[in-house]
Structures are given as C-alpha cells and as structure tokens.
Amino acid sequence: MLCAFALLAACDNGPSPAATAQAVRECPAIRSDPVRIAAGTFTMGSDQVYREEGPPRLTRVGGFWIDPHEVTNAQFAAFVAATGHVTTAEKPVDPALFRVPRDQIPPELLQPGSAVFVAPDRPSTRFTDWWRYVPGANWQRPEGPGGPEAEPNQPVVHLSHDDMTAYARWRGGRLPSEAEWEYAASAGQPASAAQPGADAANSWQGVFPVNNEQSDGFYGIAPVGCYTPNANGLYDMTGNVWEVTADYYRPGHDTADRDTPRGPSEADAYDPLNPGLVTRVMKGGSYLCAPNYCQRYRPQSRQGRDPGLGANNVGFRLVYDRPSSQRD
Ligand SMILES: [Ca+2]
Ligand SMILES: [Ca+2]
Prior knowledge:
Blueprint: E1 9-10, H1 17-20, E2 35-37, E3 40-44, E4 57-61, E5 64-66, H2 73-83, E6 113-117, E7 131-135, H3 161-171, H4 178-186, E8 242-248, E9 280-283, E10 302-305, E11 314-315, E12 319-320
Parallel strand pairs: 1-7, 8-11
Antiparallel strand pairs: 2-5, 3-4, 5-12, 6-7, 8-9, 9-10
This protein binds calcium ion (2 copies).
One calcium ion (CA) is lined by residues 202-204, 214, 216, 218, 287.
C-alpha cells in the first residue's frame, strides 16, 4: 500500500496567520436528534460537472435515520472519555506504509500527525503546495501543536476510517452508504452545478488557494449548523467538511446497481488520484471548495479518501437503522 504521506510535504510551522482569522457569523444552537429519512427513489449522480459522478440513474434507498449535523468534537470527546480510544493520527506511523528503506523516509513523516491545509503565498494548482503533513496535528489540535484547541461545536477532523467506525459502533450507528448520504443530501432537489449562496454552505469565495473572501462568514471550518439546512432539516451536507461514507471508491456509478447500492467490492475499488490505495467515497465538498479549483460543494460530488491519513477538512456523520429509543 503506497501511503499518501509520500505525496505531502512535512511542516511544523503551525497554521498560517490567515487560517486563524475568521469572520463572525451568527450560528444558532441546533438539535442533535437523528432525522428520519423515509424509503424512496431518487436520481443518484450527475453528468453536469465531473465524469466520476455519472451516469445519473434512478436509485432506490431504504429508510434510515441520520444525524442532522456532522459529528462534533464534543461528541467525539465523549467517546474518547468513555472508551480511551486513541486515534490513528495520535500514533507513530508504520514505516512499511512508505514501501522504501527506512533511512529514506524523513523522520518527521514517521511522527504522529495529519494533513493540514496551509495557504501558499502564490497561486498554484498543485495540491502539494497547500497540504502539509504536520506532526502533532490531530482531532484535539486540528491545525497542529501551534494552533488552537478543537472547538466543541466544530466537526471533528483528522480521523482515519477505523476511528470513524469505532465511534459509530459506540454510538450504535454506522457510516452511511453513498446512496443513503446523497439521497438525504439532495432532499428532492435536482442536480445543479451552481455555487452555493453565502447562507447555504461553508465553501470558499475567491480564487483558491490564495484569496479567501470569507463572504460566507468563515475562512476555515465552521461550527455545525451555521448555514441553512436542506429540506430534510440536515445541516452542512454540502460544504464545511467532506463526509466519509462506507462505500469503496471507483469512478462513476454502476448503472445496474440501482436497488440500495453499496458501491463496488473492495477488489473492484479503484482511485486514479490515489493509485495503490483502496479508498472510501467522501461526499459534499468542504470549506476549501472554490469553483476555480473544486466544484464539489454539491450532493452528487464524490472523491476517494485515504482510509488511514486524516485531514483538517474531512469529517463524517452517522446513520442508524433504528430510532434512538431502540438503541439504548
Ligand atoms: Ca467559507
Ligand atoms: Ca459537510
């Protein structure tokens, strides 16, 4: 397995000054009770923007319950306090992931850490110019040791797939399938390529990655529930942080797989952006999505996510097969 660490520069400089300066936006307190999504059919996928999202096809999804917001730091902290769970980003890195002799691996890449966005000082289209491997970055210090502590009401980030599924088991839930997530996110609305309005989602206004106008109120990550919910009453399904699903990633949708699809098998998974890695589908884009670089602030958007390496723009939310009253 080739580790995506190899693609990232190491950095221990802490957050960029711009990353700590956030505009003020009123964020109301919201409920955490899961929302019931009734079984139904919808058009999954889109042929309007990226090829990996198509072809659109009528898809049936069973009923479920879903968290109204991304899993927060406060929720994850309760899990850690109850179980003693230590996340992948808090453990030393296995040198075998790099598939090169150990003396060729920069020592800082073997320290516990995670991937952090650091805005470059000049325009660029290379993601290695803005993603840094920061030793000491983890869910408790999302921007690294020099940054602030995690805010309780912000989505938890820097988790591996194992961390997410451990939390899900503890909560009595699971990661959604891609179809469940997209069904809940689209909420009866047809696919569109439009940039969300300033009240609709935490995305990026201006020219990524150097100029963030923050006209939606936040430079970076926002507390959950700051933007208008969709018609299902779900917050931040698009924007804020990407949300990892249970499905393995492969470009495009299988047109024959229309009844409660669960994505390709592990053996059929393939991610051209992460060759050699079996990745999971993540959905909805993040606060880093700007139309000049990334038009993925939409329910149909999808990319593969490294199951081991976290990042400070990737989180998740849970779905449930039973109501809360039957899970306790
Ligand atoms: Ca923003
Ligand atoms: Ca989101």
